[in-house]
Fold these 4 entries.
Entry 1:
Amino acid sequence: MKKYYIILLYFSGIVTLHAQVGINTETPKTTLHIIPSKTDATTAEGIIAPNLTRAQLISKDARYGTDQNGAIIYITAINGTVSTKTAKITEIGYYYFDGSLWQPFSSSTPVVPTEPWRVQGSTTEATANTQNIYQAGKVVIGAAQTGTAATETLYVSGTSNITGNSKVGSSTVSGNETVGGTLAVTGATTLSGTLGVAGATTIASTGSFTLAGNGAAANKYLMSDASGKGTWTTLPATATNAEPWLVQGGTTQATANTQNIYQAGKVVIGAAQTGTAATETLYVSGTSNITGNSKVGSSTVTGNQTIGGTLAVTGATSIATTGSFTLAGNGAAAGKYLVSDASGKGTWTTLPTYPTVPTEPWQVQGGTTAATTNAQNIYQTGSVGIGASTAVPAAYKFQVTGASNVTGNSRVASSTVVGAQTVGTTLGVTGATTLSSTLGVAGATTIASTGSFTLAGNGAAASRYLMSDASGKGTWTALPTTATTEPWLVQGGTTLATTNAQNIYQTGSVSIGSNTAGTYKFQVTGASNITGNSRVASSTVVGAQTVGTTLGVTGATTLASTLGVTGVATMSNNLLVTGNTGMGITAPTQKLHVVGNEYVSGLGKFGGATTLNASAQLELGDTNKGLLPNRVALTSATVKAPVTNAVDGMIVYNTATVSAQGLSPGFYYWRGTTWTRLVDVIPQTTVNLLNLRSGVTSTVGDVTTLATKGVVLPFGDLVSTGVYAITLPEDGSYAFNFRLYGPIKEDGGNVKTARTVIFYIGLLNNSVLSDAAEINVNVIPSTNISTVATYSVVLACDGKAGDRITFRLHHFSITPYPWSLSASSSNSQANRTSMVWWKL
């Protein structure tokens, strides 16, 4: 009982002097600081909070208010009628008061949240990311679920990249789309905006192309304006326009491009039918080039004509008085005449002398005068053949046998081209042209905005439209007498879509790249690449997808393969990934595998219930796992390495033992300038034993010179030449108990009388004398003039973690008896100098 009274008296003294309470310590560091009274197995240590049953605590309800915030109790029994303040007391254990409720320190019953994702085809909650799952609600990625995002099933705000194949349900693209590379479409596609394709676009032979809006309706056909823009054109219920071209030899209207056809009126190519063009049967405005055989009927050429090959003329050809005919080379010289050889090749030749001049068959146009110069405009009423001596067929007036090349402008009357024609460069047509066979153009063909294009035969008839077969061959197609119903309707009603500027919808399936959509509302067969923004309803992506810019998903999306994002991906709602996710690594081995730095804002939790604690930035929730911090080997209590950039509060687990530094395996945190042990249990070692590393002999001095002189006692680690020190592991008060052992011998070797010899021992903290003691040893000289002495002394000091403690020894100059402290390893433990030290 006396012991307890002394402790209570001491406690009250601390309260009075320090305003802090220390139990078993004279230097309390906090409001209440408790040091174990003993560290052996003889006593129980700890703090016991007030023990109450729940009923007892309920009876005290009125005593607890905001002034009692933080009060701690221990409930020993669950009884009594629960009150508002004790509603959460459901089991025995510790509780604290938060100002309104008693809160448990922990709960043994984990809260398991309801999993919102279900396994496809059932209502089973998903438990693994390898399952096929679905979500019946809306999913928003990269934005808050407000505005447009709140109305979409899958909404993605930001750029997305789909690198593989995609299958998308029925959808409407409301903005403009730009495809930078190749767009391969295997099914039907509906675009309500603009599709800009910078590269090549291929529609497979098994696919189709749909242009929404732009006047689209059932049984309409695509017609372009001057800029090439296509518009679906409304057709009359019955054909009203008669086909102007007739089958040769009768009055039957032409219906196919394989028929031989004719036109009784005038045909103009490359110009409006006005002026000169209105008076010609066939008028071509611009340069024409005919590289194959041509047969031309009676015609008047008003301009210069150059024919690079053979021109066969079956009728009369007239060169106007304002025109001329020139054959360069071929012996051309003044006063020569054109003579042909057996093949019909003309050469300028001097005329031979004839007995009589033959009659000139060519006559000057407008009369019967025989032509005399090649500058005259001439005519021939008979047939003219070029390239062969055979008679020109009766059906022709002008025939060219062999290839002909017209390099300048040509004007041709109504004509039928019977054979195939190939134009190697540009074909300029100013009037109407009828082709009954094939026209092959190896270069570019341009039809001016003032001209027109006519394909004779091939089913040509009035009010027909051009349709291609699988090879691209065009055929004039007869239209049904009754227009079919337009399948696309204007959004918001049942009005048929009539233009490509309308917002339209389709309740059936749409397929691109194949003739069936399978079980989907919208199917693209083949790879698709969307480089602009897209918005997709609830969908399942089977293959890898790449989206070059933004992918907007407003409903639920399941990815069974890879999602590659080359730009910024923003998700404002849930994202389910059934495989591994890698950041900074192409082959992740974990569900989330990050290589590089990462930053997470907000609250974080690992395991346990999904409910987050609003005051915990990081929470660990599993009840069967622990926290494994970084394991490092510290080398010094005052050196950060190997944690080079350690800051206050950083915790590590030390695996190394450095006795002189007071370091042992356990948890440490960096505080100011030192590693401080995070003590949550009684330290394994509370007292440290050190032996003198080597023998030393005292030097002459007194207590005033201990700070700079005197022999250094080699306890601890060597920190500089001849200097040994102990490094304090943490802040606090320390005690050092020395057992000094060794012989004392008179300096001069002379036998002295028995007497008391004075020694001084000092404790230096960072080279500053902190404590000292005077030792008086009774010397009784023997025959060898020495006395072996053993003496104990205790020194103490206050210090900071990292302080270096050294010790020095003097003998007083008036009594010149040096003390040689023993540290020989041959001595027993009892016959050597040692020291024990501990933190108070």
Entry 2:
Amino acid sequence: MTLQRALRGLVRTPGFTLGAALILGLASTGLLVVGTAVWQLFFKPLPFVDGDQLVTIHGYSQQISRDIGISVPLLGELEQVEGLVAVAGYEETEDRTDRDGQVWHVARVGAGLPDLLGLAPVLGSGFRAEHADPGAPTVALLAESVWQARFDRDPSVLGRDIEFRDVRARIIGIMPGSLTVPDADVQVWLPLQLGADEFSAENMSSFGGMHAIGRLQPGLTPAVFEQRLQQHFADHPGLAPLVQFFSLELRSRSLRDHWTAGKRAPLTLLAVAILAVLLTTLLNLAGLWMSRLLARGHVQAIQSALGAGQWQSLKNLAAEYLIVAALAMGLALMLSVPSLHWLKTLGVIDDSVPVSVAFGPATVMMAIAVAALAGLPILLAGWWQTQRRQTSPAALLGAGGVTARQAPARVRRALIVVQFAVAMALLVCVGLLLRSWHGLLNEDLGFQPQSLLVVSLAHDPDRPETAAAEALEQLAALPGVQSVSHATAVPFGRVESASNYELPDAEGFAARDRLVGPDYFKTLGITLSAGRSFDPDASGPDHAGVVIDEVLAHRYWPDGNAVGQQLIAPRPGERISHEIIGVAGTVRHMNLDEEPSMGTVYRFLPQPGSVTQLVASTSVPPESLIGPVRQSLTASLGESTAQGTSIATMDSLIRRSVSDRQPQIVLLSVFAALALLLSATGLYAVMSYSVRSRTTELGLRMALGADGAEVRRLMLADSIWLLLFGLGLGGVLALVGARLIASQLHGIGSTDPLSWTAATLTLALVLILAGWWPARRAAGLSPMNALYGGQK
């Protein structure tokens, strides 16, 4: 009966019903999406046996602030570390094309990796120890998803061969979808076949593409194991050069932390923003429901006169909320799936990460919990108003006097002030992030990125020595290309290399090592502050001298005489001396906000090697050449090499380096706009109700001589006072929010005047406009109609 009565009441006010369900549903969608991501990324059990005991082991260079994997000899010695039960290596995935032209996402892993994770094949057998022996026939494990998609789960796939260009692999087993190492997109696993040469002590410092997963003893934490790891290898002679020159530090962290690295901070920020918007939504709804209860005072008086108690009003309110919440949560659940997809598109959630995020039962449970918790402030507001209400039916049925009841009005105004404050805090945070983003993108990079096209060639096993040279010629011949060059690592190309160097009779140091081709500095627009560039007729890197950057020049030759000095490159069995022939400007290589403290040494490479990156300076928009470049590569190098080649403008690579910040700005902007809209809506509703409830008072003022302008100023003054209180509280909340994002700000402080001023003016403008319309309507009241309650 109560639900039927509540439903009839909501049907009679469709605007209120749909509006309340819409704003609660939208705000809840964000919370459900972020809550689902947080649960599945950080709390849902991993799909492995005792997944909390799994750790990754890697080297970290404090000099270049990057993970650098491990070396093969180090992998072989890890099992000697106390507390490690088992360990397996793996390499990063790569795309390989078979003889039929089909592309496979392939990973080479240690033969013991599936057993270490506690995973068994769904069909066939897994790797055995002998499969890892050098020279043994190559076998392959197939992902269950590929077995389904390409072979329609045909059991006879076992025993078939996949013929890649460099190896033939026989399928021996099908692995379940829970095997997601190194990533969730792997289609084929091949066993690592490492021989004595790879495990030799000479390779101990050859860190790079190898990674390791280990299983700890029960009860041992990753932090304690990391201490044991560092103690075990503290004085290892093979690691001494890396420790000295690159500040190598061996680290270990849980497998979950490894896969979710970089996600905790942005998701925490988004969760705080969404909770702020949800708070604004609930305060808005509480104010609207209080106005709704006041407007139904006569109905409640009649019910009271007929014997209904105060609890009946609360039951009606609860029934109405349940109906609205059901509509809102239904909307939120429907929007959760596309919203999760949007977060993946923005890059907030990485779909290739083995810990996947998807709509599931946890999302539904969260929706129920959100609906229950969201109802508390609304029901409390209704209970408080019911307790404050006069109990005499005659009093409720009689005239309300010339002024509105003050207690409910004060509560509604307080709710509006809190909404203003939340909107202010979000606007300030968005302004700070936008200013920081703009500052980052306008940093001096040390080169001219505007008209550059970067081609990262895929390895061509059929022509490893000539493919890059052919591609360079094809690139140079395209219309619109002004100059071309090549390098082992171009700025923002996501490839890093570094080497040890020494000065005569002085200490050694680590520096970024770049092998570059003719016209490299000209093509990128890197200025030479002293000396000259490379002689294009030089025979190779050991005979052309070197160019250093200004970081090294100022550090070791502050008097400006770096040109002509000697730089020694220690190599296995020899020490090669290079003459410094030039000093180049400092370049930012990996990140816009990196501190250029390491220094760079450029060496000359006349022809590109098998692993190289090409760069072209263009006279036309570089993005217009992406299609022609790929067509040219397809014609000259073949489709498989062209498909595996990355072609991008330098501007896009630069933006990709800060792409983790862009989603936060976009989402915070959406939340700030929503909070601002809710605040404006709440102010409009409060002021409109104020005009209705003070109709008699306003009519009396106008009958006594007040004109429309005076009434308008009176009503606007209420809005301005609310705004001032909101700005004061919002300033405090904004300072807290600015502290949360301080680590992501670049070039500005958390009290940046422009950001704060823009946020204040935006909030003030929107809210004054929201209060203007009710004030304008109040100024247009007829005194006679107002005094008679609109009945004459």
Entry 3:
Amino acid sequence: MQNPPVTDSSDSSQYRGPSPADDPMLAARLAVPALPKILIRRPALLERLTAGLQDPLTLLTLVNGPAGAGKTVLVTHWLSESRAPGPVVWLTLEPGDAPGAFWAYVIEGLHRSGVRLPARVGRPARAEGVDRSLLVHLAEALAASPEPVVLVLDRLDAVPSQETAEGLDFVLRHACGGLRLVLTSRTEPMLPLHLYRASGAITEIRNADLRFTGEESALLLKEHGLEVSEEGIGLLAARTDGWAAGLRLVALAMQQSADPETFARQFATDRTTIADYLITEVLDAQPLPLQELLLRASIADRIHPDLADVLTGRQDADWALADLAHANAFLERLDGSDWYRLHPLFAEVLHAHLRHRRPGLEPELRARAARWFAEAGRLTDAVAQAAEAGDWRFAAGHLVDDLAIGRLFTGLDTEQLRRTFSAMPEDLDGPAPALVRAAGRLADHDLDGCAADLRLADEHLEPAGPALRLCRAFVGMLAAGLAGDPEEAGREAGEADRLLPDVPQRRLDEHPEIPAMLMTGLGAAELGAGRLDDAERRLLAAVEACGQPGLECPLTDALGSLAMVELLQGRLRRAEQHARWSLTAAERSALPPERRSGLGHLVLAGVATEHDDLETARAELTLATAAAGTFPQPVAAVESAVIGARLATAAGDREGALALLGKAGSTSARCLPDWAADELAIAGSAVHLAHGDAAAALDVLDLGASDRPEHTVATARALVAGGQPERALDMLAGLPADDPASAGAEASEAWRVRACLLRAEAVAGSGDPDEACRLLREALVLARPEELRRVFTESGPWLREVVRREPQLARAHSWLPGAGKRTGAHEQLPLLVEALSERESEVLREAAQMLTTEEIAANLYLSANTVKTHLKSIYRKLSVTRRSEAVRRARDLGMM
């Protein structure tokens, strides 16, 4: 069946999923299984599937029954007759599929089936869950499909996850008919089936429907070349209760029997379990060498010929496995690979029989398998087999030697690895186990436990190889960063960076998260120490290193830290750009809120504050605070307090502003660098000045000595406010020259604007209006590239008097809100007004069309009360009392 692609007119970018080379199971799990050679057509069931999937009201088709009931064969048979209404995606689920891995497979399946998804859908970045935005974008894309997409989830019962079920329900209900879901399951799915039944949106095929009738059982035996009496068929059908797999198993065994009729009677009366049958009639029917191969292969979920050779000591497992698969000995070859998989029921019986027939052999076999998987680059399988064997030293040592320690923090197999190592004995000594325990505890935010295990690892670190020492420094860097100690994080990151050339490049290529997270950590440490130029260089390199798929988490962190560097340097345009890229990367990779540092939103709050868009600043600061987590970085804590204090001051809340600054100073005091402490002092001084307390402003600044230009400017500002303009001018005269290089790359250009305004204020007060105008003009020129508006709003009433005498200054700088127009002969517009938010601008544009409040609400999908609230805010910002005045003033100000 030809599956036409689903197009997306708004975004032609396509999803790029994981490479099939990453997992030999990928192609098999997304492939429609092959039909058995002997197939019994069941037209009534096929017609029910067709009717359900062709009905536009039917969203869900459930095929439910016990193992071996023929669920998968039925749906596969239906698909083979090209009855699907649109593109088909098949996914075979497996035990342990976490929500993130599940949705990664679904999205990859859509891509392989020709379904084009917009880039905003993204893909999961972690195994344990997905962000709701991914599901929203996926449902939106499916709703836009010109024809419904059929998603078949085979063995849904293998994934008993409430989160996965809720996500499926959400996407199915919001895809607007663009998704038809077919489920095969042994158990009741965790979906609200009663709601689907009530709305007639479900087709159900249950175990009673799947049971073979007497006629079908007879046809099955006949297709196997067996002649059995009607009584014998009746006995088999009654004993198996129409169980399809049981009938097929019996038919295969009867082919080997000299008297099929007698076998049918004996099976019906003497055999108590299918396990007896499988052992006696299937396993024992194989030559002893093949019996041994099957028994030993049962320890692995999948088997490769080379692994089978290792487990058995033979050298012809390739031929032997192919022969067993060809003989239908309940072993199947996975499509497109050299791997095989035992029938699950047969594997379970074999595994139990291995323990009974060869007691004590299983741990040895698992240890062999662990080493083979390790050499084959199958990390997760190697660790799981070593853990089952009780060989924890090998499991931990391999994770460290392979430089895979970062997989405990990020990746689709993170949940499985954490679950495996959670069973490692607490008293297991040695540097690798201690280091793995430390990483696990760090992932759970147990900083004290992590520190204790790191000390244990350090006791044996001296003779260790570079891989272990690199992993030790890597975990130490993450722990120091989480604890808010940039200096220690920098030392650990530097040590790790020094060790990188000593480990095989192949390992680094296999685990790009290590160098990417190290560079991000180094950059964050430089940022925390206030070395902004070094931080920028490190973080730019980190962003470049995060270009590969799967590195969205460190990419988000690197972009957020880079944006913070640029905010502190006063480069607002670049800061805003990188902050938005950081948030976009987090959204596309569906990072959960607890994994986001909040730096992106914090930087946007800082940019909005400098642009004098205080409403946006407050909204972004709220988002940043919510995402900061339990252990905010000192830089984030300080900048959050500084921005919050400026916003509180603008609202007249002096006590609230000072409380924010005091809390940040006390919380981060242990590891607060000098520059950050100075930022808090400068912000505190500004709070006091806004309330006319110049003495308190100077006292705050005098508590800490600093040679930063920002500190000098803040002190001069307090002196001017305290009536000492001459002292202020003397201090400002000692600032670096106008060449930015002379101030050093660590300083923000914003201080130059403030310094010019202070000089203008000082000379204006001494009776030199011409010099004041010249300095104001210089400040406006400096502020224009980054549109630094707030600094003018905070400058005080003297500025309005200067502009009153020189109105052309404001007219020449229309980027300032409220700049330079008159509404009448005697009415002077304010030089600056608070910027309207995007939503307020929309409301004002609607109001300009003479629409009523209710009409505006309907057009913008808002409530009438919300529209009224926005109008009140507009009136306040524009200093008007009526709607018509607001429209006229906004036009005069160039805001419409």
Entry 4:
Amino acid sequence: MSGTESEPTGASTDAVAERATPSSRALSALAAFWVALSIATVLALPHRGLDGFGSAAMLAIVCGLMLLAEVAPLDVEMRQESYLVSFGMVATVLAAFLLAPAVAVAARLAVSLWAYGLRARQPTTKLLVNLASHTLEMTIATLVVGALAPAQFGPAAWPAAYLAAACAHLAATTAIDTAITVAQGRWDPGMLSGNGVSFVVDLSGTTVAILVITLVEVHAAAAWLQLAVGAGLFLAVRSYSRVAARYRGTKHLDHFTRRLSAAVIDGNAVRAIVVEAADILHADRAWLLVRDGEAHRLTLDEAGEVAWSPATADDAEILDRSSERAVLELDGESETIHCRVATDEQGRSVVLVVADRSGSVRGFDDGDVRLVQTLATHAGLAIQNLELLDRLRDQVAQAEHRATHDALTGLPNRVHFQRSLDRVLADGEQPAVLLLDLDRFRDVNDTLGHHNGDLLLIEIGRRLVDIVGDAGLVARLGGDEFAALVVGAIDARALALRVAAAVERPVRVSDVDVEVGASIGLAVTPPDVDITSGALIRQADVAMYNAKSDRSLVEQYSPDRDTYSPERLSLVGQLRQAIDRGELVLHYQPQIDMCTGEVYGAEALARWPRSDGRWIPPDEFIHIAEHTGLIRPLTALVIDLAVAQAARWHAQHRGVRVSLNLSAHNLVDPEIPTVIADALAAAGLPATQLMVELTETTVMSNPTRALQVIEELRAIGVGLAIDDFGTGHSSLAYLSRLPVTELKIDRSFVMDMADEPTATSIVRTIVDLGRNLELDVIAEGVENDDIASSLIDLGCHHAQGFHYSRPLEPRAFETWHAHHDAELAAAHRGAIASEQSIGAS
């Protein structure tokens, strides 16, 4: 490309470095298309050229200028920026005016092919991109000249010359920038940094070309004189450029030496060598190869830190053939310079490698090779003086171990575990994954301190290794979470139970016998199903949380219990917005006194209507709220809505008490009593018009804290009910301590009364228990008149269920209530009339 190539001092600019990737193949195809399109275009143009200066001689001059521009660019530094200045636009404008279009393009293509393909041996993609930019430049110039320039050259043709140069410059830089963008996969604004300077250089070259053409028109021999003057000036500037380049090289070397000396003291020598070598050589990549038994590659990660990785096959070949003399190699895919930095008698060695020079004007040359050799010499001295080779070996081993093992227990960590699982799955095995989470571990930390908690984790890890043994791999994934990977004909569930038994044995910590349990999730690879390691671990994680929720030792993954789907995850943000916007609503299910038929209460049930007309089931969004920290704002919204509705009905003298449910998360929230009291005060609702329902499991999940919150709620004056009674595991001792006023029989017992005598016995027992404890009893799930009659016979007078009404939105509830009261009044009047008729007879 004519003009300049910008290379910022101290930082390399990424360019079209060849890679065997789909993007490089696409780029090669695009560049080849540009070349073909340019050739086809100029072949269709008419011949144009000036007479009076032999066409063969002019062709030779133009080709010479093109060749000179490509093989001998001037290296100029301006404002801390290094520029390779090429006066190729002189040849481009001359060719556009003095040669036939096809000849001009062919000459440009031939010179570029020789300079970049045969001489510089550029990689295929970079070569094609350069050929495309040059042919486009030449083609655009000939097109503009052919369209705008007059037949006779003179001042009237000068604007066409400058416009041709500008358009050609734009075409060439656009081709290069497009190629870089395709190769990188993104647009980099830094590519425009040198375009201004190159544009000025190209316009200056156009001026020179105009002078040459003018002299050709006036007197052809004078053109030779001008070319001689230009050549002398070029040689002078080039001589100065070489002196300046040597000066900059000395500065680079001095900077490298100083930086390396400081880095050796700081322990960052490896990073300094890689970073400085890449910057000084304007290389896209640089790394160190280390052979100490095994071959490793040391490079920088995205954070700029030294990262270890196994050496590739190409790296191993470089280590084998490297020497103390730097070598430039081109394999058709990339260009590299490598040089041995250090070696010893044991065969350990370090090699510096730089690859793919940034920019499009030139690749690495002999000067770069000499510079790499010098850098390697200085780096080698530093390594030898401080025995950095041994430290590199230790750093590699330590970094590898730190990256794959837990610092506390010494067990493999999550990275190691997942890699091992990946290998097992790749081998076609069907592994099982056990995920273990300790119960009550936080109590140990809070009571005995984190140091003793760490001792407990170490002992648990040792026990797991003893149980699993050679049958699998044990890892600590983090916190109090462990994992085991087992392969082969092993009963994974039996192994999980043995692990649970081992964990439950007391651990002696700080003269205290500590007992912790474990919740274990088990996931087994399904037969004939492709599954990733991440999916298998996630399944074990889901099973583990199910075990923790069920308070069981071991749970195996079941898709039916997988509530952690991506769809559920997407609902979190939507639920947060719905709460903030007040989009959730309450429906109310009537509660009936079966003896009188009167409506004395209503249970508030949260509903989430979606904009698409779909309703999200309560179990789904309440579960999400409980596991994402949204349960508090959700509960506050439900309390506000329920209390406000109860206040409206109270003002209408409906005599309807409203019940609402609290979850286990609410009962350990000390602010809940204040939230309810504030809502009652704001609405002006008597506390007796609100009933708070709690499940047995909710209370027993944390009985101490729950009892404190319950007592504060009772002190406010609200009623308290135990919901779904009979399905939990509360004891009568706790029940007698709770200041509750009502028991609600779970619908599962009520609905089975017609078919299961056992269910009837359970209901009778609960009714008798409520009577003996002086508690009201209400039956849920009453769906027909037979069940209602049976409940009355057992002494249960209060009920709710579909037999009376499904949950209704407030206005529908009020309509139903009015209709129900009217029917009740009509029935009452009918009964009175019937009694009067019988008395009269």
